[in-house]
Design brief:
By secondary structure, the protein is mainly alpha-helical. It has one domain. It is built from three helices and no strands. The longest helix has 9 residues. The two termini are 21 Å apart.
Length: 51
């Protein structure tokens, strides 16, 4: 769950003194359209997806 949190929820900052946040990994590769909240992540993990 930590890896999913890191890729969908955690926004790191760019190097330097600007303090700008970089895009999350899931947005960069096209898996997500926005930064997920912890509640969204928890609901996605808790609810199984059926084929």
């Amino acid at each position: 769950m930590f890896a999913v949190y890191y890729n969908y929820c955690w926004q790191t900052r760019l190097k330097g003194t600007t303090g700008k946040k970089r895009l999350i990994a899931a947005i960069m590769v096209g898996l997500a359209g926005h930064v997920w909240s912890f509640d969204e992540l928890f609901d996605a993990v808790r609810t199984p997806s059926l084929p």
